[in-house]
Amino acid sequence: xxxxxxxxxxxxxxxxxxxxxxxxxxxxxxxxxxxxxxxxxxxxxxxxxxxxxxxxxxxxxxxxxxxxxxxxxxxxxxxxxxxxxxxxxxxxxxxxxxxxxxxxxxxxxxxxxxxxxxxxxxxxxxxxxxxxxxxxxxxxxxxxxxxxxxxxxxxxxxxxxxxxxxxxxxxxxxxxxxxxxxxxxxxxxxxxxxxxxxxxxxxxxxxxxxxxxxxxxxxxxxxxxxxxxxxxxxxxxxxxxxxxxxxxxxxxxxxxxxxxxxxxxxxxxxxxxxxxxxxxxxxxxxxxxxxxxxxxxxxxxxxxxxxxxxxxxxxxxxxxxxxxxxxxxxxxxxxxxxxxxxxxxxxxxxxxxxxxxxxxxxxxxx
Length: 366
Description:
CATH architecture of the largest domain: 3-Layer(aba) Sandwich
Oligomer: single chain
CATH class of the largest domain: Alpha Beta
Number of domains: 2
Largest sheet: 6 strands, mixed
Low-confidence stretches: 1-15
């Protein structure tokens, strides 16, 4: 599937406190034709299993990120019998509205504008949040790199540069690596640039995580540790030279940005805990990253929270609802009927909606 992007537009690149005002979803999974007025603060989406609650969050995620967070195992994003799917959102700031658009048809995905991920960043809490702690290293690297680009937008060009140089060096390796290794220096410099940016971001993230855990009195004995390559370009050059013969056999460069990870440490040792504990730690990490990114320009993400109480004791669920209420400007929660709502009740700004068979029922008064 190809992802296409429309022309760049300046709106929203330095937006602070821009909020999603309205959402329209058509032919997305089991959501046939749904419109939702999204409020500031907390939005509660109530519905039975397979009613379309998670699909609604998935549509919002696609609008921002351009792809699903559920993967292909849940089938096609396009409603059965339809030729394409459409998600539109209206972003509001200081009384002005800007339309955002995601569509999928005939194997192609289009987002308008292509800066939408920075205009409307989304943060997700779901059944896989624990994987930020105990899952594959690739997920943690994507987490760091996505937040790094929000924190330091110029990092996006560094990743683009690295991909271009890596493609050239790998093509040279696949062709037999004949002649001078002309791409080694450019590759080492591009790699060192990303490694330095990652290390700088992660050092700040570790401080924010530690501060937040102490403020909340959660997991106060746990710290973050980054494990990655040296960012010294000369050292990287030397290692590329040492590994060149093996790289020629492989047909690609082994030394790269995928050789990195971070871990949660307790008394210097890698931390292990239950899946529920890992989920809480993953949430804490997300909030710390949001605080760090927001400290740069004051912008805030849209939080998508799917069945928060799954695998958590009620007390921990309430603590996380309270934490997110203090840290986020706009959140969309999904809940099963009769499940947990804030123990202090709904506030005047809260909105509650019911989804049934992919259709949105009338909004309930709060």
